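Long-time lurker. I teach an intro course on protein structure, and each term I like to show students one example going from raw sequence to a predicted 3D structure in token notation. This year I'd like something fresh instead of my usual example. Would anyone be willing to generate the tokens for the chain below so I can use it in lecture? Attribution to the forum is fine with me.
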Amino acid sequence: MARFVIKDSQWEIIQPFVSLKKTKRGRPREIDDRLIVEAVLYVMRTGIQWREMPSEFPNWKTVYSRFSYWNKSKTWSKIWSVFKKNWKAQCRNERYFAILR
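-- Reply from a regular --
Happy to contribute to a lecture. Here you go:
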């Protein structure tokens, strides 16, 4: 996929939550986690069915199963809470600097 929706700075926040630590057990992941997150966000943004994802994304079953796993493990909630804290801090800083102007 030529264009990422997620900025590199945002990916640095998301990556620790979705990337597995390397272990000697199990099969290594072949598909990049960032591409999976991009695909999930595409489905959420457009409202398409999982099976209708464009071919530039991985197989819909792979994307859905990873989404489902992250949902059950509360990974999405953890990610959104970090972004919410960062957003609130940014808003406070902007208000503070607006007062100083």
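Some talking points for your students: The two ends are 42 Å apart (CA to CA). The chain has a mean pLDDT of 80.
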